TrEMBL record:
SUPFAM superfamilies according to UniProt: Nudix (SSF55811), Phosphoglycerate mutase-like (SSF53254)
Name of the protein in its database record: NUDIX hydrolase
Organism: Pedococcus aerophilus
InterPro entries: His_Pase_superF_clade-1, His_PPase_superfam, NUDIX_hydrolase-like_dom_sf, NUDIX_hydrolase_dom, Nudix_hydrolase_domain
Signal peptide region: none
Keyword Cytoplasm: no
Organism phylogeny: Bacteria, Bacillati, Actinomycetota, Actinomycetes, Micrococcales
Entry GO MF terms: hydrolase activity
Domain Nudix hydrolase: 3-133
Keywords: Hydrolase
UniProt key word Hydrolase: yes
A Pfam family recorded for this sequence: His_Phos_1
Domain of life: Bacteria
Amino acid sequence: MTAPIPAAGTLPWRRRRGQLEVALVHRPKYDDWSWAKGKLDPGEAWPVAAVRETEEETSLEVGLGRPLPTAEYTVLDAAGTPATKTVHYWAAEATKPAGALRNEIDEVRWLDVVSASDRLDYARDRDQLRALVRADKAGTLTTWPLALVRHAHAVGRGSWSGDDRLRPLDRPGTARAAEVSRLLAAYGITRLVSSPSVRCADTLRPHAAALGVPLRTKDGLSEEGYAADAGRAPRHLLRLLERGVPAALCSHGPVLPDLLGVLLPLVHPGEPDAAHVTATLGTAATEAMAKGEVLVAHLVGHGEAARIVAVERHLP
């Protein structure tokens, strides 16, 4: 068996006349109906590939929602050798109607969930559909993302003689900032809040520039501001929870554990994976997020009613 083949895809969904529908794709080469998916490009992050492949196969623009069960199955690679294909899936609400089809897909069909289950050609594809339906019945299918970002790798303190707040990203850190922008775009994140320290602001700046939106800086998210008043940083996070809009907050290693501590009590108790979500947040808080890491929490509700239904960690 050769190395696993990484792939990513989505279950695009919408409501039509109050009924939940999902989009299936038909591949004439195999004469099968399945979900939009495809292999990762070299160095590509799973969520970025999921959005790209969905657009390429369906012409649908989507924003990623909560993750769905992963599929693993055996295929033949380019050399005809058996290999495991691992596909990560997300629920993805369609934000615009589909355009013209291209690539290997000749039809995209929106179906209600019962018809979709009947139409799917592979039993493994029903795992994701069942999870999506369970979330819909629980009222946790419509979510919004909140990303906590630790600034990307910066010039070392030992080789920087100026004000530490002005210490810039190094070359790998600058490259990671571009990757962070692509990740945030996959989730449709549009509100950006950061420590004013250059290494933090420049981690989010490429995404702000791509969207043409302001980058809001808050002194309370800096190491210096946190040292002076540790209560300010959590208050900035609470304001984002009150807004309930797709947002990213970038800060520093010493500050992030307190912010993760704000999120821990918000784990939805009714979620089947609540223990895993709690453990993931707890690990991120105690072992420290990596530089350039993006932790995405998927929430329902806002303010005091905000609850986390899923969490993902994307390492550089």
